[in-house]
Amino acid sequence: MKIFIDTADIKEIKEALSMGVLDGVTTNPSLVSKTGKTFEACVKEILEVVSGPVSVEVVATDHDGMVAEARSFAAWADNVVVKVPIIREGLKAIKTLSSEGIRVNVTLCFSPLQALLAAKAGASYISPFVGRLDDVSHDGMELVQQIIDIYGNYAFDTEVLVASVRHPLHVVTAALMGADVCTVPFKVIDQLLKHPLTDNGLKAFLADWEKVKKG
Ligand code: G3P
User: Fold this and answer.
1) What percent of the chain has pLDDT over 90?
2) Among 4, 13, 28, which residue has the most ligand 1 atoms within 8 Å of its CB, making it the best to mutate?
3) What tens digit of pLDDT does each residue of 65-100 get?
4) N or C: which end of the chain has fewer CB within 10 A?
5) Which residues contact 109 (CB under 8 A, 6 or more apart)?
């Protein structure tokens, strides 16, 4: 399973890259707004350090506007993936952009039927928002399983990108289900590594080393 980081914070991106586990980045307007930078400056700074896919979201809500924004983002770097919301005009934009070879990450997916339509239109990625579904008492990971099953039934190439991840259990469940990608906030990437038995074991080894070292 590929691991993307869900942030626009360049420090977090650089730290995750140095850990050797990062395959890509997803951003959205809310994440960019937290950086205090302008949208273009923020995204271009990310593109300078990341070679994997970087998702950049359009804000237009009509086909022509989305396509114009997407074309300008795609000109910034080869690894730009354009994020488009799953609305009717978005579907039209996915079709246009995919026919031009611009990869699209379809965002704000909350149902298996939205995912089916996105794949039919030519999406490269579908992003089910699992945490936001959990927030309203729907099992977000159940949606992920439904999408994996549907895409498997018809051999769609669209990759299932688990988004709105809130905790390590989302990540382990995504991996067990065979999701293609999980986009994870930095805090959760750090949590994936933690185990108290690792910390206790290391502490004991270092204490015992003190007893046997020379001098
Ligand atoms: O990038 C989209 C998604 O991951 C947002 O997550 O935490 O705002 O629901 P969240």
Assistant:
1) 99
2) 28
3) 999 999 999 999 999 999 999 999 999 999 999 999
4) C
5) 86, 115, 118, 126, 127, 128, 129, 143, 147
What phi-psi label fits residue 8: left (phi over 0), alpha (psi between -120 and 50 degrees) or beta?
alpha
| Ligand 1 lined by 124 (C-beta under 6 Å) | no
Asked if the model's pLDDT at residue 214 lies above 90, the reply is no
* Sequence-separated (6 or more) residues with CB below 8 Å from residue 115: 106, 109, 126, 128, 146, 147, 150, 151, 158, 160
Tokens read off for 83: 């994020």
| Ligand 1 atom showing the smallest separation from residue 28 Cα | 1
User: Where do the domains of the chain lie?
Assistant: 2-212
The ligand 1 atom at the shortest distance from the C-alpha of residue 163 is 4
